[in-house]
Specification:
Blueprint (H helix, E strand, L loop, with lengths): L11 E5 L3 H7 L4 H22 L3 E8 L7 H25 L1 E6 L7 H13 L6 E9 L1 H18 L9 H5 L12 E4 L18 E4 L9 H12 L16
Parallel strand pairs: 1-2, 1-5, 2-4, 3-4, 5-6
Helix pairs in contact: 1-2, 2-3, 3-4
Bound molecules: farnesyl diphosphate.
Amino acid sequence: MHRIIKEKLPRHIAVIMDGNGRWAKKNMLKRGMGHEKGAESVRTVVKTCRELGIPYLTLYAFSVENWQRPKNEVRALISLLETYLRTELGAMKETGIRLFTIGDADSFPKTLMDLLSRAKEETSENSGMVLTLALSYGGRDEIIRAVNNILRDSKSSNIGEKMITKDFFSHYLYTANIPDPDLLIRTSGEYRLSNFLLWQMAYTELYFTDTLWPDFSRDDMIEAIVDYQRRERRFGLISDQLPKD
Ligand code: FPP
């Protein structure tokens, strides 16, 4: 913890939580147990980020592609999300966490949708940290949705060709009110973005670790932040052009 420079914290950390299935296999358990242990890591990571003062944390909890998994696994993941919301709402309120979602959350069963609405509503005044769960989320789907919504709006307003700037477009994304991630963490030794925040991660620092998500600890999160803080973010410039800190 003492290795972290408080003034250089990432403002937004995004996480691809991968390796639950392999963790279960390694421990001779059913895949569902891997997800259960993964939910424990979610609790640890949320707590750690809140304590450190990270303003935005975004977790890839369920991708649009995950709907293609075996039905019992989809059910288990939905059930875990419900349990998570039931058990953590109190802690979110106490610690000032605001819950937000990105993705097509309307595709989930009513129980989960109701729990999500309630948690979002009851934490809407919190300002300690924004915890965003990506649910039924896909980066390409998000971009296509934005284009369609711009087309829809162009019928009732005078949106012209040259008006579509990067800033204008960003406002049509799910993440309109969230800054781009500074740091992406992906666990389990996979080196892919897997359709996560494709537009938003243009200049995000990528951190990959072999640790499987259920084993990802507070120390692992600290290590990822320390690694991030050693990097020089140039955004296409050269070192000499950057502000001296
Ligand atoms: C990837 O592991 C993980 C997921 C598809 C789901 C992530 C869900 C959780 C961590 C638990 C519930 C979430 C919350 C927010 C409470 P995988 O199954 O693809 O692992 P594998 O590649 O080893 O098979």
